[in-house]
């Protein structure tokens, strides 16, 4: 089992690294794993210039490119993904934000189905939740599932034994969840919010230019007529609520953007 850890700290051996190492240790106890640490600071992430080429024309048209394609290849080849960031100014580091921005086309054209993710944020005191949830939300939009979050204090301080024990328990528990997720056959059943998100993006893709990257991607995969990115059973009461939400969504978008 291959685990890819995308490390968002500019420091190699700080708290964030210590946290991921503890996850690795538990994973190794449970099975044979190949762990790859990719320090985002060592990658050429470039800087998104806001041209929208990746979204409208396709990621191959990105004028910045750098190591984006290489990182995506490694993510596609992984059985589990760890996204780890220290908190800087109440959010993820600029390295992580750059990485997330460079993968924005995956909101439109998700691809990491069935890839379990653990999002870890470490901080001196505040901002862990905003940071771990930002990484987790992006991962969900990109198709990853299941997605877990962990929020931690700085680990290079003199934590009390009780607190260190608590951190260790949290990280070991997270490692167990990730490991179990890799043992499931096929991607998990989507949550209601995933089904709603699918319908939002399906409408956008259906209404985009027929030769746009989104339209072609969705059409070629049969998603424009599908219930979800992959076959899954949707309970009747979900279907009813989804139809209602879709109607409201179209009315809202008609009011704001005009009818397509
Ligand atoms: C520029 C900078 C900004 C920071 N901002 C915050 C913050 O907003 N909230 C917080 O609790 N800790 C903040 N911290 C502390 C780090 O989140 C904390 O030390 C973290 O564990 C460092 O991770 P690392 O050792 O992996 O680099 C900041 C640290 C730096 C260097």
Topology summary:
Blueprint: E1 2-7, H1 15-30, E2 34-39, H2 53-56, H3 68-76, E3 80-86, H4 94-102, H5 105-108, E4 117-123, H6 128-141, E5 147-153, H7 161-183, H8 192-207, H9 213-220, H10 236-257
The structure holds flavin mononucleotide.
Flavin mononucleotide (FMN) is lined by residues 9, 11, 14-17, 86-90, 122-127, 154.
Brief rundown of the structure:
The chain is of the alpha/beta class and 260 residues long. The protein has ten helices and five strands.
Explain what the structure shows.
There is one protein chain. This protein is an alpha/beta fold. The chain folds into two domains: 182 residues, 3-Layer(aba) Sandwich (Rossmann fold); 66 residues, no CATH class. The protein is built from ten helices and five strands. It has a five-stranded parallel sheet with strand order 2-1-3-4-5, sandwiched between helices. Strand 1, helix 1 and strand 2 form a beta-alpha-beta unit. The longest helix is centred in the middle third of the chain and has 23 residues. It is globular and about 60 Å long. The N and C termini lie far apart (46 Å). The model has no long low-confidence stretch (mean pLDDT 94). The site of flavin mononucleotide (FMN) has 18 residues, from helix 1 and strand 4.
What brief labels describe this structure?
alpha/beta; 2 domains; 48% helix; Rossmann fold; 260 residues; 13% strand; globular; binds flavin mononucleotide; five-stranded parallel beta sheet; 10 helices
């Amino acid at each position: 089992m291959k685990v890819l850890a995308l490390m968002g700290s500019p420091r190699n051996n700080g708290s964030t690294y210590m946290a991921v190492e503890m996850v690795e240790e538990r994973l190794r106890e449970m099975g044979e794993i190949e762990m790859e640490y990719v320090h985002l600071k060592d990658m050429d992430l470039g800087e998104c210039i806001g041209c929208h080429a990746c979204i409208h024309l396709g990621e191959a048209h990105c004028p910045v490119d750098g190591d984006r394609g290489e990182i995506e290849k490694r993510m596609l080849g992984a059985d589990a993904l760890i996204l780890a960031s220290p908190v800087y100014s109440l959010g993820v580091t600029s390295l992580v934000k750059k990485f997330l921005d460079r993968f924005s086309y995956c909101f439109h054209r998700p691809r990491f189905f069935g890839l379990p993710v653990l999002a870890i944020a470490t901080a001196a005191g505040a901002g862990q939740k905003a940071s771990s949830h930002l990484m987790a939300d992006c991962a969900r939009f990109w198709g990853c599932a299941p997605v877990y979050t962990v929020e931690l204090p700085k680990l290079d301080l003199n934590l009390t034994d009780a607190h260190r024990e608590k951190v260790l328990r949290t990280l070991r528990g997270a490692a167990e969840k990730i490991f179990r997720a890799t043992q499931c056959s096929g991607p998990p059943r989507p949550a209601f919010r995933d089904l709603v998100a699918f319908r939002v993006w399906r409408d956008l893709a259906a209404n985009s230019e027929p030769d746009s990257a989104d339209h072609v991607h969705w059409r070629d995969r049969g998603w424009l007529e599908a219930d979800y990115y992959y076959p899954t059973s949707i309970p009747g009461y979900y279907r009813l609520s989804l139809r209602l939400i879709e109607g409201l969504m179209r009315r809202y978008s008609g009011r704001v953007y005009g009818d397509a």
